[in-house]
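Key idea: predict the complex, not the pieces.
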Amino acid sequence: MLPNFAYIRARSKQEALDNLRSEGAHVHAGGTDLLGCARDGVFKVEKLVSISRLEELEGITGTGDGGLRIGALTTISEIAESPLVQESYPGLAQAAGDVASPQLRNQGTLGGNLCQRPRCWYFRGDFHCAKKGGDLCYAVEGENRYHAIFGGDPCYIVHPSDTAPMLVALGAEVRISGAAGDRTMPLQDFFVLPDQDLSRETVLQPGEIVTEVLLPKAAGIRSSYRKIRERGAWDFALVSVALAVRMNGSAVADARIVLGGVAPVPWRSEAGEKALNGNEPSASVAADVAAATVAGARPLEQNAYKVHLAKGALVESLLAL
Amino acid sequence: MREANYYSRDPVPETPEPKQKQDPWAETKVVGQPLPRVDAYQRLSGAAVYPSDVHLPEMLYGAILRCPHAHARIKSLETTAAEQIPGVRAVLTNSSPGTDIPWQPESDGPASVLFDPVCRFEGEAVAAVAATTPYQAQDALRAMQVDYEVLPAVSTPQDALEPGAPKVHPDGNSVGEPSTYERGDVSAGFEAADVVVEETFQVPFLLHTPMEPHGCVARWEGDKLTLWESTQGVYNVQRQVAAALDLPLSHVRVIGHYVGGGFGSKLAIGKYSLIAALLAKKTARPVKVFLSREETFLCVGNRPGGTMRLKAGAKRDGTLTALDFEALGSGGAYSPYGTGLFDWQIRDLYHCRNVRTKGRSAYINAGEERPMRAPGHPQGSWALEQVLDALAAKLEMDPLKLRLENLTAVSQARGDIPYTSTGFKECLEEGAKAFGWAAARARPAADGPVVRGVGVGGCTWVAGAGGPPSTAIVKYFADGSVNLNMGASDIGTGTKTVMAMVVAEELGVPVERIQIEHADTGTTEFATASGGSKTVPTESPAVRAAALDCREQLLAMAAQDLNISAAELELEAGEVFSTRDPAKRLAVGEISQFRQRRTVVGVGYRGPNPEDKAVCPFAAQFCEVEVNKRTGEVRVLRFLGAHDSGRVMSRLTYDNQVYGGIVMGIGFGLTERRVLDEKQTGKMVNRNWHDYKIPTALDVPADMESLPIEIQDLECNTTGAKGLGEPVTIPTAAAIANAVYDATGVRVTEAPINPTRLLDLLAAHDQRRA
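Result:
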């Protein structure tokens, strides 16, 4: 049952930012996950600040340098169905189309998809885990089939987003607004590992919001997104593979390989990229790239399958380039 | 192994002999037609009032405080703060007068009480409140201060039987001696075998998760209690509530016109039923207690999981020589029926003279089992159908042929009495033909990472005969419209539709002119709960008898007016006419005695089942899957269910049962499992519909086919129908596992099959081959 909270529907970005400064205040966009978290008491919710009226945060438009600007309030459905996205960034259209279910895609926003909290069942459930200020990451000894194989210590959540790995692979930047003004950074740097900060998954400071995502020019880039899950809809990735590759003839000139569902952040594999760059994606190259990509994996008791799965999905994606 | 109580054969008093001769129908006009549901509009438009929709004036909302630990002792419980919350009207704890009620009703398990100071599973009821709004009720629960002594918990039957395991009950965790069954000479059977296969299987605990949560609304008028309960059987609720509260049956009225799914979890009352009644008594207001989704994952039943070992021997020609089966499971903290009926398929489906089974159950710190769509059967089928496939592989024989080599016309588990009918052979043969089995098997193996395979599974179902008691009343009105009165619940399977069709068949009245009163102990006749796939075979003969009684009375009255023998009269479309001279006819409204009486009432009873014969449905299901060997993804491409359930009473509800059962079986095969934090807290980690993964529309094939094998059964009962609702989900998961084996060469013995398991197995398989 939802707790009592104040609700403000901001008329301007400034009003939203002003209202978000207090403790227990949360930005409300699509609300698909926020309301569930509030209901389940995953974190304290005292005030919801809706930004749904801020039209300047909506929509997909081309930028002067041939890239794309996607407002944080753009729905996941709009991204999946956008001809601009489908044509130039097919991997992103695929990733957006793989999110959750049609209803959630219609309601959920890009900003929310990037900022969503982890789905770890200990974090979400009735367990006072380390991420919530307790002493223990229950996943270490517990039911950890869905948990991290990279970068976990001391908290083995996985980043749940489908769009994030793809956007990182595409070299996207994220624009953030806060009381101190705006800042822009590579999306890759937006996410933080638990050993940097156990309590949050992004660099967002209290009172800051994501306003837009900027994609660089897509010319010459091939992208793909492959998500593996236990059921066909309304399920997060066991493992996903986001690929963005610039080709030079039949060889790969510059590759970005980012895995979802394996680490607390979208997990970029520079070792995998290095093994791929300069090579034609043949079966043997794909196998080498896959092996290099998972080389540092440290599976827990129940999730070693993720190593096989990441390799298998990566090989499949590489051979389909 | 003990049989769960809902289909046990309690002795039934003799029902009156029918006055009419009730030969099975030679042909039917209405029965068997694909008619839409009689309540389709109500269900789809929202006009149907489910118990959870009931809203009464002055009604309060009840809520139940639940233990957050898998095992704990309540040291103290302080409710003062809760009582002071505005809107709170009543608080119940184990020190409140009237709460000293034994729990659970009609169980052979260990004794407990409504609010037990020792909580043996997460979600056990600790206290309850009633308040003006649901929010106030929740606030009151949060304001209760409970000091728990958290006790060590045990989460699996294996761990429960280890020496030194935490004790769920003072006497320990064993439910008693293992249940055993034996026929023939198993050792000799294995000695005679040319090939032997032995495998160990594991199946998870599964949850019913019906769409409508469990709960009720309780209202007292003086010393009379009315309950609107989401239930599969209003008379079960009446009996159990009356016993618990020491009330005469006549003072407990239970109404359950609609129920949003049960799958066996709503055959009995819950603590919520009594809590609602007690809160309503205490506050002198109606009280509504409906559980949250999360609560329904913890404390209203599950399908037991466990470990099974099955060894099978066969001759070179495929003849089974021996089956040796052992199972270990758990019915949770209170039920001793952990492995109940796990072995039924092994005992009864295939011809085998030498069979031994053994089932052990242990108590664990988890919610209690409740019957779930074919109790024990899908689990046993997972083992048996896979072992048959493994035998076939070893014999280099088509798995279909191996099954056809081992058919039986008698129920071996019941002392070799014959079945009234068995269409198992036809299910296998005609199903295979319609599915294209031979062609699919002959297809060369695909070269590459994505491979396909086909699988088959057969089944029988222990119940499905139905049986007495049941009483139905048909009231024929002056305008030729009809009222059917019966106690049975329609749990979403189309019971009302089928019964209206039976009345229409006998009285020549269009289904639209039939009104049904049902599932109300105050106004309708006794019926057993709707479960065990027995509702249609139980109720339809009683309804038919009532309609025939009504018809006979009308014809007798008409015969006087027409001055001819009633024996030559026929009733159709509101007219009585002579079959010899159709010119002699009379509109029903013109029958003089009927004009005076205005209604004719027919009463029908369910007669006894045939003696010394078994009435059982049979089925064979076929599927094709696609497996991505790189990712472990399994996609079900198509399914065919060939079912012998006797007469097809209504083609649409029949097909819906088949599709629904297959969907549920796909959940067992591919996606569902209850996950407890076994090594730490014992708490359930996936108690919601996101983490407990029932299949979505994208997980089930668009290509599903229902192929009725309509064998005429002249002996089972007077409508010829056998049960269908449970066999439809028994062999499904095993058929998928067999198809995955056919595709990959990997036998997945642990359900569910998905990348989290299959990838490791595929990798190991590749290593073995390399």
